[in-house]
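Moderator note: this is an archived Q&A kept for reference. The question asked for a predicted structure of one protein chain; the sequence and the answer are reproduced below.
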Amino acid sequence: MPPGLDALKHIVVLMMENRSFDHMLGSLKAVNQQIDGVDGTQFNRDTQGNQVFVQPLAEFQSQLDPDPDHHFPAVDQQIFAGDQSATRVATMQGFVQNYFQQQQDVAHSQKIMYYFSADKLPVLTSLATNFAVFNRWFASIPGPTICNRAFAHYGTSFGQVGMSMFYPQGKSIYERLQDAGILAKLYYFDQASSTMEVVNLLQHQPELFGTYDQFLADCKSSKLPAYSFIEPNYTDHDNDDGEQLASDQHPDHNVQAGELYIASVYNAIVSNPALWASTALLVVYDEHGGIFDHVPPPACTPDGHSAGPADTGLSAPFNFDRLGVRVPAILISPWIPKGTVVGTDRVFEHASIPATVTNHFIGSYTASTAREQSAQTFLDLLSLDTMRTDSVVFNIQD
């Protein structure tokens, strides 16, 4: 076993909200040609037939308002440009026309093609260029948040493609670990902005939930469980310290608040040398939020479920045999070579999370779906023979 894997005692996943790869990391193509980002030639046509090219004009807030549509029918239009034929091909040409439907404004619809320049996102850029960035990490479903996050928890959404708070049958990754005597915890931000899964995920096992403040304390005291899943703050609200900005980066929340949150999670780990040496942190986004990405989603192994037209809002069922739109994903560890770019030949999705965690901490597990069992795992990226002595430290106030 490589030394990095032998030392690995903790896997931490921070799942942010609703941003595409091109939107957040596309500019890094200019830094490293191996990164499959944007170069200014990618475009969609607007409702007037004009070519709308990608531009580095994304703003931190007040630009993608109203929120781009990312429910199943809208994402289908974004991917297939409205083509409903049996022989259709994913062109990624429907983003501008779909966003136009929000307020019938041609100029505003073009903003869906904007992306951030690397200097605007110093935290995400620094982590991506210092550790491992995935060229091919996709949302599990071409749809919204809840069903996509279910894949991170269960390796399936049990046939759901929307935002219903379903009551699944089957063991989550947390329950699997608990059954094996291994500690796991889902950390939500606070009571005013708790996990969206709290109504059904592990509802009878409150000991597996903790707050973000507890996560910080567990990092400091070296009490972090084997597996941690961290959720950001989903709402702007007041607390004892005054106004608390949403940190999830969901449009139209402040992207800089999310940058600070990512940095605070990373800092909490790297500030404890023993924890840093024994932890892999994955920063990933649940889905693309309706924002442009140029890479067509590939086919995937079905998970054994199907959603009918009444659920998809389309004329045909969805058999969970293709992925959603590409999202940012970065793996962070001192055992990863600096500047690692995971190539386009390796496709990941949110089922890769329970697959990786199960494989590392439990081993063989036959009760998971065929989808999860076929998902790529990512701990082979911890490939160095000697732990790196360099690290990034972000100067922020937690």
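Archived answer notes: The chain has one domain: 3-37+117-381.
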